[in-house]
Amino acid sequence: MDNDSAEHRSLLRRIARRAMTARGLEPDFPPAVLSEVDRIDRAPLPASGARDLRGLLWASIDNDDSRDLDQLSVCEALPDGTVRVLVAIADVDGLVSPGSAVDGHAGRNTTSVYTPAEIFPMLPEKLSTGLTSLNADEDREAIVIDMQVDREGMLRGSEIYQAIVHNHAKLAYDAAAAWLEGHGPMPAAIAAVPGMDDQIRTQDAVAQQFEAIRRRAGALTFETIEAQPVFDGNAIRDLQPQQKNRARELIENLMIAANGVSARFLETRGRSSIRRVVRSPQRWERIVDLARQSGEHLPAEPDSHALEVFLQRRRAADPIRFPDLSLAIIKLLGAGEYVLEQPGEDAPGHFGLAVQDYTHSTAPNRRYPDLLTQRLIKAALAGAPAPYTDPELETLALHCTRKEDDANKVERLARKAAAALMLESRIGDRFDAIVTGASEKGTWVRIFHPPIEGRLVAGFHGADVGDRLQVKLVRTEPERGFIDFVRA
């Protein structure tokens, strides 16, 4: 290992910290936050009237290295063929109160920031991976979203309440998915708990029903390749694609359903909320052009159902290139945002998920909007006044959208810096690529092997999102995340 490669991790840390500071994010917790957390010595106490659900076979499924566990899930088959699906959300508000120093820091950053060499948690680890995490073999206070699902996967009823829960099995996505998909052994954490195997399989079946219903409504099927740096000590040795699998889909589908219940819960109680929306795409005409290039037809006006049919056909016809098409369309759809919704109003909904009522409520250790929603729900449960006025919620929604964008840019820069380090020795090489962005700010391409994005600095005239071309690598500058190509 040479000296330069031995410094990859420390270089990436410096880049991430500098980028966070430049965008008004705090990479470190202020002394007042640390002092406040030092005085906390217990997990949240059970609320008066909280239900005792510790006997249910709760389990968490997350990344292999995740320690900030926001949610657990469990299900119960009923005699009439319906299934109760319960999602427990960590009671972060129980220890992080509005106006506290910890809340102030969380409200400034609004999200945990994940970079290759270092994670910058929204909450101090004593809380996020300890006292407010739904850790294995621990009793915890939680907000429970209880859903009744019929044989066809339709939601027939729901309620939200506070409860005490117990995580009986901490599972990891990849191992659980390999088992569910039939090409891996049963994870030891499942085998150790009698009945947990049937429990996870039932959750998976319900999650697949949820997804099928959303697909019929026009939810979009994407498959992208997100490359994660692999370290050998402190040196980057590879970029490993992270792809969707059955366990990730299980959690994603249960959380989408739970977030919908949370939004409707506040609406039916006459409470304002912060909704997560993805508006109809402004660059729909370019999506139509991409379909036309593949011999397909899309209507002139945005239509998520028609787009999903097109995506499914392309996935079947060209599975190798489908991730590239997915990436191009995701870029054209535009980013999500947080907005205030008052009772009786109709928010734009989430175009990509094909749902009208949607909020973020299931990750309060990692996202500030989820913590805000948790406080709104707890106030509604208690019959207390909302902790925020509508003008305050509107300001918070805009702030969370902006800081999420800042955090995303920091994460992209850190990933590009890691990719630039990987490509330093390949200046002059040629690669097949796809155009992933085209605007006045520049044209961007992603090469296929390894899957890395960079800027097209020459030969970009006439290139648009979705075009395929060949490029040559001409420069890398890890400190600035620069990877420059020219059209070959």
Record keyword descriptors for this entry:
six-stranded mixed β-sheet; 488 residues; alpha+beta; globular; OB fold (Dihydrolipoamide Acetyltransferase, E2P)
Question: How would you describe what is shown here?
Answer:
This protein is of the alpha+beta class. It folds into two domains: 3-278 and 335-417, no CATH class; 427-488, OB fold (Dihydrolipoamide Acetyltransferase, E2P). Helix content is 38%, strand content 24%. The chain has helices at 3-6, 8-22, 31-38, 101-109, 125-131, 173-180, 188-191, 196-217, 246-268, 284-293, 304-317, 322-333, 368-382, 390-423, and strands spanning 51-52, 58-62, 71-77, 83-90, 113-114, 119-120, 139-149, 155-172, 226-232, 235-242, 273-277, 337-341, 430-439, 442-447, 452-458, 468-477, 482-487. The strands form five sheets. Strands 1, 2, 3, 4, 7 and 8 form a six-stranded mixed β-sheet that branches. Strands 13-14-15-17-16 form a five-stranded mixed beta barrel. Helix 8 (196-217) packs across helix 9. 43% of the residues are buried.
Structural class: alpha+beta
Number of strands: 17
Low-confidence stretches: none
Mean pLDDT over the residues: 93
Measured distance between first and last alpha carbons: 33 Å
Tell me what portion of residues adopts beta-strand conformation. 15-25%
Radius of gyration: 23 Å
Query: Based on CA inertia axes, which overall geometry fits?
Result: globular
Number of helices: 14
Helix % is: 25-40%
How would a textbook summarize the main sheet?
6 strands, mixed
Tally of separate domains: 2
Give a quick summary of the entry:
The protein is of the alpha+beta class. Strand 3 and strand 4 form a beta hairpin.
